[in-house]
Write a structure and sequence with these properties.
There is one protein chain. The protein has about 475 residues and is of the alpha+beta class. The chain has four domains: about 100 residues, Uridine Diphospho-n-acetylenolpyruvylglucosamine Reductase, domain 2 (2-Layer Sandwich), CATH 3.30.43; about 120 residues, 2-Layer Sandwich (Uridine Diphospho-n-acetylenolpyruvylglucosamine Reductase, domain 3); about 100 residues, Alpha-Beta Plaits (2-Layer Sandwich), CATH 3.30.70.3450; about 90 residues, GMP Synthetase, Chain A, domain 3, CATH 3.30.300.330. Helices cover about 35% and strands about 20% of the residues. The protein is built from 17 helices and 18 strands. The protein has a seven-stranded antiparallel β-sheet with strand order 15-12-14-13-17-18-16, sandwiched between helices. The chain has a five-stranded antiparallel β-sheet with strand order 5-6-10-8-9. Strands 1-2-4-3 form a four-stranded mixed β-sheet. Strand 8 and strand 9 form a beta hairpin. It is globular.
Length: about 475
Amino acid sequence: MGPDLIAALAGIVGDAHVSTRDADRLVYSVDASWLPQMTLDRGVATPRPDVIVHPGSAGEVARLLAFAHERRIPILPWGGGSGTQGGAVPVRGGIVVDLRGLDRIVEIDERSLTVTAEAGVNGKLLERALNERGLMLPHYPASAEWATVGGYVAARGSGVLSTRYGKIEDLVVALRVAVPTGELIDTVCVPRHAVGPDLTQLFVGSEGTLGIITRATLSVVPLPADRRFATLRFPSVHAGIETFRTALAAGHRPSVIRMYDEEATQRTLGPVVAAPLDGVCAVVACEGEHAAVNAELERICELARAHAAVELSPALAERWWDRRYDFYAPPHHPALPAIWGTVDVVATYSRIDAVHAALEEAVRERYAGIGLKLRIHFSHWYAWGTMIYARFLIPDGALAGDANELHDRIWEDAVTAVLAAGGVINDHHGVGLKLGRYMEAQHGVAFDTLRRIKAAIDPLGIMNPGKLGL
């Protein structure tokens, strides 16, 4: 990118907010996904942006988009860089727009129970501000320490309280979005109202391919008066699924259900809660008013006992809550030279057993001979189904010369098996670069409609190119 274009960008955001330094271009070439980290570790050049800009307002973002559109320059948003799917990797160079300068909490509306925050507001800082008012955003994703409001929405994320409060799309009230031609648009100020198709939800999960979210209005709730815990050990994964399916069908809405298979109980849950555990273990939390919490938790435990579950100390589940972010930090989170990946998939209850069996066969059994470990837990539950969070790990896999090929082959086998069993390839981590090649297989002919929407909104294809399979 020539000096004239760099000067023009500086004219929009100021000289101090434009960088072409090699060190900065390197930092913005990777997110938290395995492949770019592995590439960088091997000393191989990663795709890098030509320039990084740091706008301070939605108006500046809109002008940056108009600039890029006029000159047909790729442009992509950056939040906290915590994505695991390669969604922020600048595969065609161009302009990275770091949104963390849009860091204002615009309004906390205690009467309507909403918060309006700019896209660059950090998740933990937002939560702290709400807690000071006796409120919370009931999202709590593992990435909260790094992720931003815009990233929450753009990747269609989920947090640990989703079973009670829903995923981020259930919490979004309205959005302000900069579209590729340089306009700022506000979606309807109440969610899912009958004034035509829902433009808010069009941008939820779009991962920067249709525009850049500059602020969001989100639903909040009062901090619960009580939160109580149970720890359960089931004789099988199926028994646990049936327990929680029955509980949700009966109208119970625990805030947390995390159920770990035998391998994950021993190798993942046990070390974090500092207890030797075995079998299929689940942690459950219910919250709200005292009497209602006690009754709901007891009823869920009764259903569990009817499925041959044994109650363990509730202190284990409470410890899980206190340490819930530890799973994603050393020494519990994998690091190079391992090969790892999280295959998060979702299915209806009528298909979840088949999807679970297909993943076991396609990944755990097929690659056991090379030392692969598969740790599965079920972390988000719905009235209609549940999701599988399956992390595969080959401890020294990245030392092999064909590490990238092996990584991609495991993903190919996993996704192919899941689709054949009637599952959906992703629940809440986004699609990004990693899963883009499977979008047509997932959606079938309907994917052409998404292509046409992309072409209508972003006719020059400048918005985060290469993502979502577009």
